[in-house]
Design brief:
Layout lengths: L5 H28 L3 E11 L8 E3 L1 E5 L2 E4 L2 E2 L3 E4 L18 E4 L5 E5 L6 E4 L7 E6 L2 E7 L2 H11 L5 E4 L7 E2 L15 E2 L7 E5 H8 L15 E4 L11 E4 L3 E10 L6 E2 L4 E2 L6 H7 L9 H4 L4 E10 L1 E4 L3 E5 L2
Parallel strand pairs: 15-16
Antiparallel strand pairs: 1-2, 1-16, 1-23, 3-4, 3-22, 4-5, 6-12, 7-8, 8-9, 10-11, 11-12, 13-14, 15-21, 17-18, 17-23, 18-21, 19-20
């Protein structure tokens, strides 16, 4: 083997150190460029224990690696699957908008109610049930079967056998965003979630909803859009420009992309039926499509944009009234 001189070793070490310093300096400078300005306050917080079912309005939440959490329940940590192994949403079954989960007083169970059904009680702790695979958009993911009683309950409510309720358990690695063939480039290495679609958190402003409702014959609700964090005090669609969001002194969120909206927004959350008007989707398509110069225009396709998807960069607690700051760089 050729000999390596001490001078070469020293030179290599110096180059490696210099590259490390440059990398750290680059990250520091990028952070220094961020100029946070207060854009409003947190006015509402929502946790949706079961994907596509009714959400819980809460006064505070914790940002954790898989999403936001309250009373031991992570947002969208349960999911309904069909007999064919596909996830079930309001797009196929609008009546699941009327399935209402809540947390028991002892915080040990999820209590699930729906019209004409007895209360279903599902333990929040992992039960080491069978692990099933389910396709969630472009990714195959896993879930722990919540058991016969839960599966029978959902099959009865949905009117056909073979439906299952799955939970995200500690045995399951989670949905890795970078593996998504369409949006994976927006994720950082290691970012994952429970059963959220494309990001851990969704933000919507009150002003944006007010702007939309001013164009509709029948106003719609926040529940049509299922956000996690609602911001009051900013102008309509100001959230489109936010690159980073800081809430209080602990929480830092990074925008991945705007939220493309689908047919699910046209389900009336009070009746569990599609609205005949086709709104709010029809109206959103008239003025909220991605502009021609948007680099993500082709990824959004025919979906109008409403609200913002964000990744969690630092953990901690959020509560109603917390100041919201944003940086556009």
């Amino acid at each position: 083997m050729p000999e390596i001189s001490n001078n070469n070793l020293v030179l290599g070490s110096l180059v490696a150190c210099a590259m490390g310093v440059l990398g750290i300096s680059y990250i520091f400078l990028r952070r220094e460029k961020r100029k946070f300005t207060q854009v409003g306050v947190v006015s509402k917080l929502f946790i949706h224990p079961i994907k596509s079912c009714r959400g819980l309005e809460v006064s505070q939440a914790e940002c954790v690696a898989l999403g936001i959490k309250n009373n031991g329940v992570i947002d969208r940590s349960f999911i309904i699957i069909s007999p064919e192994g596909r996830f079930v949403s309001q797009r196929q079954q609008p009546s699941i908008a009327l399935i209402s989960p809540s947390v028991s007083e002892d915080k040990e169970s999820l209590l699930i109610n729906a019209p004409g059904m007895t209360t279903l009680k599902v333990p929040l702790k992992d039960q080491n049930g069978p692990v099933c695979n389910v396709k969630l958009w472009r990714l195959m993911i896993e879930g722990e079967d919540c058991g016969h009683e839960a599966n029978e309950w959902f099959s009865q409510y949905l009117g056909s056998p073979g439906h299952k309720l799955l939970r995200h358990s500690k045995r399951i690695k989670g949905k890795v965003f970078s593996q998504d063939s369409l949006w994976g480039s927006k994720a950082k290495r290691g970012e994952k979630s429970a059963y959220q679609d494309l990001a851990q958190v969704n933000i919507l402003s009150v002003a944006s909803l007010d702007s939309l409702n001013s164009k509709l014959e029948k106003p719609v609700q926040l529940r049509n859009f299922r956000p996690n964090i609602v911001v009051e005090g900013t102008s309509a669609f100001c959230e489109d420009k936010w690159k980073y969001v800081r809430i209080g002194e602990q929480i830092l969120l990074r925008t991945t992309h705007l939220c493309g909206r689908c047919r699910q927004t046209t389900v009336d959350p009070d009746t569990g039926k599609f609205m005949e008007s086709g709104d709010p989707l029809k109206t959103l398509k008239s003025y909220r499509m991605a502009p021609p110069d948007d680099p993500d225009k082709n990824r959004y396709g025919a979906a109008p944009l409403f609200g913002t998807n964000l990744a969690i960069e630092s953990f901690g607690y959020i509560q109603i009234g917390d100041p919201v700051y944003a940086s556009i760089v």
